[in-house]
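Sequence in, structure out.
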Amino acid sequence: MKKQSIKAWAAFLAFTILLFTGKTYSQTSGHDSRNVWRLGIGAEAAIPTGNMRDLSHIAVGGTARLQYDIKGTTSLTLTSGYYNFFAREYVVRPDYAIIPVKVGAKVFFVPHAYIIGEIGAGLETKEYYGKNTKLILAPGVGYATNSGVDIGLRYENISGGSTPDFGMVALRIAYGFRL
């Protein structure tokens, strides 16, 4: 494993530990309020799938998600951040990186548990790969507590542009709060 991968995992683990051991503040009545803005800051860890699996064994990143609760258990989302796919030891190409910009909807089907669907663009950041814009489709599920912890699992399909299409299975651990 590369030193970069070890450092990335260590940073992700440290963030997760701080997230669960820090002091949290309760939100009022959970996620059934109307017209409430929330912001969530999260750490991401992912396993690449498809064509990216041959080039990278892990991706890590961070995201910010702006959420607007519109009606009962439904929210609109805007998510952006940064994902870095660490190149395997035998790959001569540099790491692959992308900036996602996604909009979506989040629906709580039971208290605290939700499904989310997002669509957006992925902006490649490395000159080596051509800096294309890719289409992102991302369905997922998650669990959000009243104390602000949000854990989500999703599949993200990334396609288009001159680089091959690929995907990733991603875990997001975040802390959210009302604005």
